[in-house]
Here is the input.
Amino acid sequence: MKNLKQFNTFNLDVNCQEIVFLNSDEDYINFQKTSSPKILIGGGSDILFTCDYHGIVGITQNKGIEIAEDDSVYKVKAEAGTKWHELVENLVNRGIGGAENLALIPGTCGAAPIQNIGAYGLEFDNLCDYVNVVDKNGNKIKLKASDCNFGYRTSNFKTLWIDNYIITSIGLKLSKKWVPLLDYSPLNNLKKIPNLTPKLIFDEIIKLRMNKLPDPKYLGNAGSFFKNPVVSYEQFCKLRTQYNDMPYYEQPHNQFKIPAGWMIDRCNLKGVTIGGAQVYEHQALVIVNKGNAIPSDIIKLAKHITKTVEQKFNIRIEPEIRIYGSNGEVTLEQL
Ligand code: EPU
Here is the structure.
């Protein structure tokens, strides 16, 4: 048995049968071809192990960033094991704009397409050009961004292609005509700044995230535990009549995204603790491990949150993170 505590940002003390580190395309191909049950993780920052995993855990470690350019775009290739934040920082330090709103998102470049990571008005798919993968037979395939069916915290990697492909590297396309994205309200004050640069936005995002989100080095967590639910216009109107201070983000097709963190907060759940698991005091969408949490504390707390929010708002919020049982991925309901 191998211990996974240092490989999951919840810092849970769980085991698996074997850990393998993947450093090259050849390692990925061999990993895909092993017949044992297996899962691949990057930074372990979006995952909840609910018990020991009866299989092999692969950890991406191939690192590297290549940048090419033509007249209009920068073409960036990053190996799957490269830390996402290091990629953003590298680009910003070269004066290349476009990815700065995604600063400080934990995890690796290879994990970014799976959830279609996003923050402050920008999502991975806004930048993605292609995703290189290895299929079950060990063939290398280059998938175009348009093949991946990216959506809010989802993609074909989480649904249709689950367990079929593993990501070895990603390609981004960043326009040389940089346009700052400042529509998200905490960034509005930057609109006044003359000669705004990607670096200034990068620094501001880091400040915002550090204020709201706990650093897993000191307090185990996996970022937002739940997704923000998207509701119909009718449901939105009903809620807004009842809660006229309710924040919301308008979506395409007459839908509305409601911050789950706000709903959890309105249920007075901030700080609520079960065993070693707690609803984070500064951002209710995050569950933290106060140090001694066991997986069932987190599961119990997540279920308590889901139930309480559903009773108050008649909306069932869904986990954003991926949950694993002894034999593979499971849902919160199954636990
Ligand atoms: N709010 C509260 N109380 C809380 C938390 C939030 O009232 O405890 C309110 C805030 O005041 C704000 C609204 O809810 O009006 C939204 O909150 P916030 O700006 O913190 O963003 P979020 O919707 O909770 C999402 C992403 C984050 C991302 C931020 C910033 C999801 C699931 N989460 O959170 O992503 O950093 O927006 O863009 O979409 C992650 O995925 O792990 C993550 C951290």
In short: The first strand starts at residue 2 and ends at 3. The CA atoms of residues 85 and 103 lie 6 Å apart. The mean pLDDT is 96. The pocket of EPU is lined by residues 119-120, 212-213, 223-224, 227-228, 247, 259, 261-262, 265, 283-285, 320 (CB under 6 Å).
